[in-house]
What we know:
By secondary structure, the protein is mainly α. About 90% of the residues lie in helices and about 0% in strands. Helix 1 crosses helix 3 and helix 2 packs across helix 4 (about 115-145).
Amino acid sequence: MMKEILTNKALVAFLVVIGYDLAKKLLVYGSKKVDKFQQSKKMQKKEKLNKVIDQVQTFVTYAVTTVGDTYVNALKTNGLFTDEAKKEAEKQAIEIIKPFIGKQEMAILVTACKDLDEFLSKKIMETVDNKKVSTTVQTETQQSA
């Protein structure tokens, strides 16, 4: 009888040790899977955000070109392009861009950047600066030819 009790206690102790070790391994394994899943979700969100930013950049380029052709160039030609006119041009460009951005894309952008108008203003200014550099390089290339 005593032998059976000792054997049962040893068996229970053995099962507890194995169960604890197995539970620990399962916890570590599960934790690694969760980490990989979370990393995958973060990568998907980042890829979606990058895709939306690329789309918005296309809209920004279109808006900057349109406002430049219809508003800015006329003012510059007449020497009337002031800081106030610059702000108005930026406002017009934002008004052109926003309708092109879908609801889902808008939600992604607002989540990522909080202030959409500020984000668009920065993108507009970057695009304007890039166009200035591009125009300067083209002019210098034509003059040296």
